[in-house]
Amino acid sequence: MTDAILMQLLSFSLMNDRISTYLNVNPQLGSAMNPILAILKEHNISDTQISELFQAMTENPMMAMGMIGQLGIPPEKLQQLMGLVMQNPALIKEAVTELGLDFSKVEAAKAQLEK
To answer: How far apart (Å, rounded) are the C-alpha atoms in residues 12 and 41?
Structure first.
């Protein structure tokens, strides 16, 4: 019984470490940074580049995808980023909101692509 509890605690600890890796604390806000933004920051993508990327996403998602490829992020990190977005699409909305952009424009651009 004690071994099972110990294993659960260890499992929880490992999961917590993984979550902490994704949820960097934003020193300016004192709250968890969006994992998409955290990965971009981890690869020294400037605030300006991040804003331009998300602005492009609100106007032309295809152009934004091209911009992502030019950021120099290693393929394994891009794959991780895509996995995060696929598991939790709301992260896009959170990032757009965190950057002070209008998410309705992302939805409009998405609707245009689906036509």
So the answer is: 27
